[in-house]
Design goal:
The structure is a single chain. By secondary structure, the protein is α+β, with helices and mostly antiparallel strands. It folds into two domains: about 80 residues, no CATH class; about 110 residues. About 65% of the residues lie in helices and about 10% in strands. It contains four helices and four strands. The protein has a four-stranded antiparallel β-sheet with strand order 2-1-3-4. Helix 3 runs antiparallel to helix 4.
């Protein structure tokens, strides 16, 4: 046993012995009233367990066990939560409340899994229609760009002829605007393609939860 372990073991042993003496003294002082003296048990920052008739102020925010004069645990005093712990508890409570609302929505909106699947397919069908429209619009933009580029070839700097005129400002502006619109539409098309996977995952989660809720309800009804 290392010196530190031996010291900690000795401290705990002495504390336990002190508890026995304290409980013995309390037992002698106590009456038949069950609300007699109590002993508090807490652990310091070194992991050493302490007992006493009151908790020192520096340990008042730690978890504390309350024992009666027989040494039997009669209560627990929870440790005071840190701001981070309080924030986490608030988030968990909010998530639980949101889950309750979602569960209520599922049970009151759908009569079966088939209803959820039907709505899923409708949503995906609408999305695919949007994808087709976006692809057609991009094709139109592409044709417009080709036509503008063909016009630009008649002007400097694309036309090497010395007599060629400078590229008109309005034509240059149309080229830039069309290129930017094509880039934006390609981004939107990619996003919509990813949206289908998200929709399927969300509906599958709803289907799994709906089955779980229905199974739990059936189990309760059978009892």
């Amino acid at each position: 046993m290392t010196p530190v372990s031996h010291l900690r073991y000795t401290s705990i042993a002495l504390a336990a012995a002190g508890l026995a003496l304290a409980c013995a003294g309390l037992a002698r002082a106590a009456t038949d009233d069950s609300k007699g003296p109590v002993v508090y048990r807490w652990t310091d920052e070194n992991g050493v367990v302490h007992y006493g008739d009151r908790v020192p102020p520096q340990y008042s925010q730690r978890e504390t066990t309350v024992l009666n004069n027989q040494g039997v645990v009669i209560g627990e005093m929870a440790a005071q939560k840190t701001p981070a712990e309080l924030a986490q508890a608030a988030r968990e409570e909010q998530q639980q409340e949101q889950q309750k609302q979602r569960d209520s929505f599922l049970l009151t909106t759908y009569a079966s899994v088939a209803d959820i699947e039907q709505l899923r397919d409708e949503r995906i069908g609408q999305l695919k229609g949007q994808l087709v429209a976006s692809e057609q619009y991009i094709a139109t933009l592409h044709d417009r760009l080709l036509a503008l580029q063909a016009q630009a070839m008649l002007y400097k700097p694309y036309n090497p002829q010395p007599s060629a005129a400078r590229l008109p400002d309005d034509l240059a502006e149309q080229l830039v605007r069309t290129l930017n619109e094509m880039r934006d539409q390609h981004k939107a098309l990619t996003a919509k393609g990813q949206e289908e996977a998200v929709i399927r995952a969300q509906f599958q989660a709803d289907i799994d939860r709906f089955r779980e809720l229905r199974s739990a309800s059936a189990s309760r009804d059978s009892q």
